[in-house]
Amino acid sequence: MLRFLTAGESHGQLLMGVIEGIPSGLAITASEINSDLARRQTGYGRGGRMRIEKDTAEITCGVRWGRTLGSPIGLIIKNRDWVNWTDRMSPDPSMSGSIPPETRPRPGHADLCGIIKYAHTDVRNVLERASARETAMRVALGAVAKIFLSVFSVRIVGHVIEIGGIKARPGNVSVDLLSDRVEKSELRCADKKAEARMKKSIDEAKKNGDTVGGVFEIITTNVPAGLGSYSQWDKRMNARLAYAVMSIQAIKGVEIGIGFDAAASFGSDVHDAIYYDRSKRKFYRKTNRAGGLKAV
Amino acid sequence: MLRFLTAGESHGQLLMGVIEGIPSGLAITASEINSDLARRQTGYGRGGRMRIEKDTAEITCGVRWGRTLGSPIGLIIKNRDWVNWTDRMSPDPSMSGSIPPETRPRPGHADLCGIIKYAHTDVRNVLERASARETAMRVALGAVAKIFLSVFSVRIVGHVIEIGGIKARPGNVSVDLLSDRVEKSELRCADKKAEARMKKSIDEAKKNGDTVGGVFEIITTNVPAGLGSYSQWDKRMNARLAYAVMSIQAIKGVEIGIGFDAAASFGSDVHDAIYYDRSKRKFYRKTNRAGGLKAV
Amino acid sequence: MLRFLTAGESHGQLLMGVIEGIPSGLAITASEINSDLARRQTGYGRGGRMRIEKDTAEITCGVRWGRTLGSPIGLIIKNRDWVNWTDRMSPDPSMSGSIPPETRPRPGHADLCGIIKYAHTDVRNVLERASARETAMRVALGAVAKIFLSVFSVRIVGHVIEIGGIKARPGNVSVDLLSDRVEKSELRCADKKAEARMKKSIDEAKKNGDTVGGVFEIITTNVPAGLGSYSQWDKRMNARLAYAVMSIQAIKGVEIGIGFDAAASFGSDVHDAIYYDRSKRKFYRKTNRAGGLKAV
Amino acid sequence: MLRFLTAGESHGQLLMGVIEGIPSGLAITASEINSDLARRQTGYGRGGRMRIEKDTAEITCGVRWGRTLGSPIGLIIKNRDWVNWTDRMSPDPSMSGSIPPETRPRPGHADLCGIIKYAHTDVRNVLERASARETAMRVALGAVAKIFLSVFSVRIVGHVIEIGGIKARPGNVSVDLLSDRVEKSELRCADKKAEARMKKSIDEAKKNGDTVGGVFEIITTNVPAGLGSYSQWDKRMNARLAYAVMSIQAIKGVEIGIGFDAAASFGSDVHDAIYYDRSKRKFYRKTNRAGGLKAV
């Protein structure tokens, strides 16, 4: 079993992460983690800070000479703007008051709920941790997990399929081709035409001081059959994936396979019929509406 | 912290559940649990067995003279058809072979994946636990949790909003009125006109030996602010709710608030603006697009 | 990872247990579990009830035709005296008051602490769950775990080494011989002479309405190297074993290997020197003061 | 629920710790944590390195202006000797081989077991994490927990009661007096005479390149009744304390209250009789053989 904890505020000194359960002997370098962190920071329409500052993770524990030890792996991402926030976010009581409190809770954030829960008067005490910046460490820890999965040839590709109501038509292409296109796209969108319209939609929103929503899809290949289990509610793969995805800030919905489209379909159009290839002695399916997770 | 484990096969002797962490002194009776089990068994278009057999839960542990003891609560639901399955599902090795093995894995079920994972040759060894019958015990344990929540006036109402592509328009009604309508509806749908069309859609599908999908909505009232936390990924309320809901068989998507509709909207149309009522000295919002979970 | 929950009161209808994580295909029968339950009930000096009533466990879930399914395993032990307690321990509120409340908390039990914690006025509401009877289900679930370990030839033998201050000298015998002697002994003590004196000590205490304490030793053979881990505090084997053992009612101390004797020794007399047998190409040790758990 | 993870190797760059679940608003400073770290490093007979180098913890996350935020608290302890180990313990594959491998597993350590478990050939890959140095971060995180407990006036005092077979007689003194004496003692032993003899025993062992064992006692005051629970095995306080204590390197035994002495006693001499003071309307006990944990 893997487990991890993260810590760190958006403008604090650093973000920390400890992940436990990665086997020993796995080849792993900071640069692999950092390439995922770099990808996190790209993206059309991002704020200026995002583009200028480059997050880099240091491996501080658990890896020696390029190989995991079997001990917990510790990662640190320093906040580059720390020099401007040293007093304002200092753990030291003597720095108290070095910046006036934030008193206006923002909608669409945990601000109001957070000050109620934790009895804060300064909204900053909430927004610093509730921030999407927290996902930087999750990306870094996720990179470690991805390296581990790559040993089993498991590959994970994510791409944008909708922004501001404009839907992409990525076409029925191989994962390799899809991945290529996505890496080249500023919006991580494989449909060039849609991408152009999405950009326009972003530009317009930006001009009005607004933002637009979107949808992305994650494709995983070479996953062995039988991960998770129907034996107990909390081991089900559908559930675990939804748990992880919905824990990301700003995500308000998750589907597996055709998802909500199943609601408007006949069962016969939803289930993935099972075939057997006698020559290869293998089961196979011609469709994948269940998203590979057949334990409906 | 509440935790629970369930056990039991679809045609086995019984279903078992243990739930731990319910405080002492809570008033609780089997009949309250059984009324939720009865509701689970109603529903237009259900199979015959569902309608004839009535599940009843026995409280076997943890409750004395109508009050919880603080000890774990144990529940049992006997499978009424057990008499016909005693040999076929017996734990006794001498009963081996009393029914021929199921050899055809069904699509839309865990059958194929399960026999691979657990190295079974008889598909029955999978389908008996992977079955939706497992949710009977979850309903019973959930009823206990609901009774606990009712102490805090928390109320949970669920209703069908789409079947076979037909969408209900429940109207902007109070939870009380919605609940009344739902309890009277065979489909647990508050929109009578939509209900009629949904029934037709079910009838047609049935005639063709098929099924139709659907969507339901869960509304919870009086939930105190501050449940869950943004402090760590696995404590986030959005995530926990998705985890629980997606652990139910056949569910392939979950949304909170306006969910996927947010993807096609501007941020300004998604966030729920915060207002302050000076006379009541209270924050309030005029919209609820985040589903009450503001920690976007 | 194995996990389990138990439920049940001492004079309630039954004890329940659910254990999860046992692999599929394991051969298992109720009679194997029951032979461990029978051993729990023997023992010189036990109360009359212990000797007359025989606990038997029913496998209600998770096992079919003598093999585990991979689903959770459910066990039930009926309380044989239930007929006399049906009203007194009924979950039904209408039975309230069918026996006067226990108002005197006993020393050496959780009584006083329990009524404070759970706000009970009837001590019975505590003693029914805090009772050592709870271990009956743990023995049954432990029997399942033992059967699983036996696949790896892991064997667990327990024997009494001290009662009422009288120490046994089991001698330097093989585990097989030790086990034989233990099974034949009324006190589960391998030293016949010491056993005779222990019995006398028990008889005397009994005459005075008193009890005597004791110490038992557990020996496990064929455990593979590398269970547990030093990587995180909660994975350490020393710690996990102590956790499990100290969770048993009435146990107030646990040692591994020579335990507290190490405190009065030089390091050189405590550590188990490592040798290497070139012909067998194997490490070995001549001593076992660390109890086989070398991760001091 | 509190949870924490630590990471870090003995000669690595630093030790990391994340603790989660500490409420917001708690006053906490690095100097309080560091005073506990300083106490860890004192002690007669310690190696030279221990005396020269001073561990200091930095609070990197979760605390602002002297108050906890409710977010996870992150701590870092830099290894002062890192400059000499930068290459030898580098996560960078290019540093591979900058120090020859350790090939001799030491007895009394996890060395041999660790290289088997994690398939290492260099023993250093084990000893760096299995090291007692790991407890430095546990002391720091424990200091945070102690500060939290101090809000409830819970106080924790530890003192040495045996070294090399020499037992201390701390006398029947108040916790305040005991604590005073302990803080002044080089051996953290409240019995001056015994301390002198213990020191001699340590000196002698040292001369022979040997070490001596010992026993310490932990006393906790003002603990509220009802922590933990008899409701499930893993919530029992006896068990949880043993779990934590036995997770510390080199500890091979744990007792609560009179512990193993109970084995040689009559029940009547072990249980702590309950009295009731009518004027104060309070239960009390004259003895404390169960170590305050009455749920025998």
Overview of this protein structure:
The structure is a homotetramer of 296-residue chains. Chain A is α+β, with helices and mostly antiparallel strands and 296 residues long. The first copy, chain A, has three domains: 1-100 and 134-151, 4-Layer Sandwich (Chorismate synthase, AroC fold); 152-223, no CATH class; 255-296, no CATH class. Helix content of chain A is 31%, strand content 19%. The first copy, chain A, has ten helices and twelve strands. The first copy, chain A, has helices spanning 30-41, 48-52, 82-85, 111-118, 124-130, 134-150, 175-184, 192-207, 237-246, 267-270, and strands at 3-7, 14-20, 57-61, 63-64, 67-68, 73-78, 155-163, 166-167, 214-221, 253-255, 274-277, 282-285. In chain A, the strands form four sheets. Chain A has a four-stranded antiparallel β-sheet with strand order 1-2-6-3. In chain A, strands 8-7-9 form a three-stranded antiparallel β-sheet. A two-stranded antiparallel ribbon of chain A has the order 4-5. The longest helix of chain A is centred in the middle third of the chain and has 17 residues, at 134-150. Chains B and C meet through β1, β2, β3, β4 and β6 of B and β1, β2, β3, β4 and β6 of C. β10 (253-255) of chain C pairs antiparallel with β10 (253-255) of chain D, so a sheet runs across the interface.
- Count of discrete domains of chain A: 3
Average of per-residue pLDDT values of chain A: 94
Number of strands of chain A: 12
Largest interface pair: C-D, 82 and 81 residues
Oligomer: homotetramer
Low-confidence stretches of chain A: none
Q: Give the class-level CATH name of the largest domain in chain A.
A: Alpha Beta
Helix content of chain A: 25-40%
Looking at the structure, what is the overall shape of chain A?
A: globular
- Number of helical runs of chain A? 10
Describe the sheet with the most strands of chain A.
4 strands, antiparallel
Strand order of the largest sheet of chain A: 1-2-6-3
What is the string of SSEs of chain A from the N terminus onward? EEHHEEEEHHHHEEHHEHEHEE
CA-based gyration radius of chain A:
22 Å
Pairing-aware structural class of the strands and helices of chain A?
alpha+beta
Architecture (CATH level 2) name of the largest domain in chain A:
4-Layer Sandwich
According to CATH, the fold-level topology of the largest domain in chain A is Chorismate synthase, AroC fold
